[in-house]
Amino acid sequence: MDSSNVPEFTPKHRVPPRLRDYFTGASPFQRQLASVRKQTAFGQTPTRRKIPLCSPLQENIDPQKIAFLLHKQWTLHTLTPMYRFSYANLKQYSMHLKSFLAAEKQKGLAMEMGEDFNFKVTFSILSGIKGTHRDPAAFLVQIISKSQLSSKNAEDKVVWTGWFCCVYGDSLLENISDDFTCLPLFLANGAESNTALIGTWFQKTFDCCFTRLTISAFNLSWMAAMWTSCNLEHYRTATELLWSAPCSPQSLDISYAINPEDAKALWDSIHQTPEEITQEEVDLFIDCLCSHFHRHFKINLSATRLVCVSTSVASAHTDGKIKILCSKYLIGVLAFLTELAIFQIE
Amino acid sequence: MDEIVAEFIRRTILKIPLAEVVKILRIWNFLPESQLKTLNLRQSKESVSQEVVELCKKKHASMKEAAILDIIYHQTCQIKKIWIVYKMTKAPGEEVDLFDMEEFKDSFKKVLQRTLKNVHISFRESEDNAVWIRVAWGTPYMKPNQYKTTYVVYHSQTPFVFICHCRIKKYIPELCQALMTAGSYHEIRQMELRSLYLDSLKAIVFKQYNQDFQTYCTPLEERNLETEIVDPRIIHENMKEKERIQRVTREAFGDYVQPRIEFAQYKLETKFKTDSKNGILAEREEPFRCLVKFSSPHLLEALKSLAPAGIADAPLSPLLTCIPHKAMNYFTIREK
After folding, report:
1. pLDDT tens readout for residues A99-130
2. Contact assignment for A247 to B306 by CB distance below 8 Å
């Protein structure tokens, strides 16, 4: 996006100087890394990341409007760029999707809708959920089941919610033509069958492709480090890592929960560069936790599988489930997830 | 028959798996065998329970009998509720009286009913000198709620009591007092041991888990006769380490089947220390507070398999291997 008062950094990217302190995604180093990533046969994840604190656009977010995004478990999916999607047509999309769902229901396909046919579909924009101005606006789809009760005050129940967003998605947006809208991260809450049906409609209508986004143990450890590094006024929950040991015949789950202040102290003792997290620091953080554990139990956690990470900022499960607990770092969490989604698409 | 009793019996029968219904009714011994034989088990569970209720109505079942049915259900079926172990101690120098079951039951009932009005108490004795006590709690103004019950299992020849609180924490002091008075004990203490499996708790606490300990050892060589590795030196080193691990694991856990518990919890309050010299958190005096919880359908067997699988060192930490010996699965570990 252009801003006439801004000095040009490079011919391609114009970044206002005040964004320097935030995760810009447009520094020469970052772009070089991105191009290196595309050239290699195997994608490379960056060895250092700027700590995504928040976006300057976050000021536009109405905390009450996004409160419903917090404290809910979302299933993560990736979405390839949508062809000929237009924000002007949201009302038509909601009507089309509703008739599609009603038709599927009539066919006898199982749908968790509550009362038959008495539902409505809404498409709405989620303002402020983006990293830079280049990111397309996030939007929200909801299926609301209208109460069968004749009383006017009967509450509508939201049966299914899904939202599409792109936070600091520059590496994907760079080479894409204007016909496409890139919102690689899709989060859904509600019955699986509904998610599948709605996914089918999007795939048919916009020629895009959905897949489940799984989070590897490697990325979970990054999340543990990143979220432990966040400064919060008070910590609601412990920093908890859940490991799963492949014993046979019985499975063994090990939950390792560290007092959040102690975890932060450990991280602060490891962390060197302000505003940046390196791979070495993440590895050292996890190693320290594992060796403290080993000292007591003689069990090598590195031989087991990290399955779930939970902090006061957010909690994530390897199956691709996330719960965001803190509005201050909402953008930061989404930025990392967007990066994972883009990585999976490419 | 009271509607409340009818509903309670109906709901209890609904909880029982269809295959066990007749068995439990037989143990209950309230309905005659002839009626049990004619019970139609091919219908839905709803209908079966309804049929049983009808039969009970004809025989005028009361809450007293229904309570016994409830106890038998809990004794027979795998109930997913946590049992906590308590240990009672006599005052020093106190004599050990001869135990009388009837006296115990009378005393327990008297003490509990004296402190709390509106409690419904039922007893069922079982073999091995144990008694199951079922208490349904009410309030001074309300009759006992038959769905708000606590179960107590007391083995009279031992100082141990197993209590399934079912999330009712309010009356624990009164319950403990009644047990102490009736059993002529001076003190009662909650042990750091709890599990879903009552039998495992009994095995651990009565030290019965190592009963089928067999002293034979199968050498590793016998088991690996099929594998042929050309270079003898490699086998030897591999074998030695594997044997050592097997031996150490066997020493720690024994050869017998472990009692079944499903979790162990450790509250760590030790200082943070690593082997490497990077001085991380070196000056920190405060403990590095953690809470570690191990869970598994069969925890001890899973822990036993860790060292042979290469996931843990052998010998495994005594913090884990001491669980059955110390009869604990809740620990707080502090710096020595």
Report:
1. 888 888 877 765 565 555 678 899 998 888 88
2. yes
Which helix H or strand E contains A279, and what residues bound it?
A: helix A279-297
Sheet strands (E) in chain A? 48-50, 73-79, 82-83, 119-126, 138-145, 157-165, 180-181, 185-189, 210-212, 239-245, 252-258, 276-278, 305-310, 314-317, 321-324
> SS3 sequence, chain B?
CCHHHHHHHHHHHHHCCHHHHHHHHHHHCCCCHHHHHCCCCCCCHHHHHHHHHHHHHHCCCCHHHHHHHHHHHHHHCCCCCCEEEEEEECCCCCCCCCCCHHHHHHHHHHHHHHHCCCEEEEEEEECCCEEEEEEEECECCECCCCCCEEEEEEECCCCEEEEECCCCCCCHHHHHHHHHHHHCCCEEEEEEEEECCHHHHHHHHCCCCCCCCCCCCCCHHHHCCCCCCCCHHHHHHHHHHHHHHHHHHHHHHCCCCCCCCCEEEEEEEECCCCCCCCCCCCCCCCCEEEEEEEECCCHHHHHHHHCCCCCECCCCCHHHHCHHHHCCCEEEEECC
Indicate the residue of A253, A300, A304 with minimum beta-carbon distance to B296: A253
Cβ-nearest to B272 among A250, A255, A266: A266
Angstrom distance (rounded) from CA A261 to CA A259: 6
A268 at the B interface (CB within 8 A)? no
Asked if pLDDT for residue A337 goes beyond 50, the answer is yes
Q: What is the pLDDT of residue A116?
A: 56
Of A238, A284, A300, the CB nearest to B312: A300
- Quick check: B282 pLDDT over 60? yes
Dist CA B312 CA A304 (whole Å): 10
Interface test with B, best of A297, A300, A302, A305 (most B CBs within 10 A): A297
Q: Which tokens hold the place of B317? A: 């930490």
Residue A285 with chain B: CB contacts under 8 Å: none
> What tens digit of pLDDT does each residue of A152-169 get?
556 778 889 999 999 888
Q: How many CA atoms lie within 13 A of A28 on its CB side?
A: 3
A258 touches chain B (CB under 8 A): yes
ipTM of the complex: 0.77
Strand partners, B332: B267
| Structure token digits, residue B281 | 């958190």
Q: Which of residues 129-168 of A touch B (CB under 8 A)?
A: none
Mean of the pLDDT values across residues A279-307? 91
Per-residue model confidence as pLDDT tens digits over B157-198: 889 999 998 777 888 888 999 999 998 888 999 999 999 988
Chain A, 170 to 229: residues with Cβ < 8 Å from chain B are none
Residues of B in contact with A256 (CB under 8 A): 290, 292
pTM: predicted TM-score of the whole model, two decimal places: 0.77
Q: What is the pLDDT of residues B84-134, one digit of tens each?
A: 999 998 887 777 777 888 889 999 999 998 888 888 999 999 877 789 999
Q: In the numeric block, which tokens belong to residue B87?
A: 């240990």
Mean pLDDT for B234-247 is 77
User: pLDDT (tens digit, 9 = 90+) per residue, B50-86?
Assistant: 888 888 888 888 899 999 999 999 988 877 889 999 9
C-alpha B119/C-alpha B139 separation (Å) is: 8
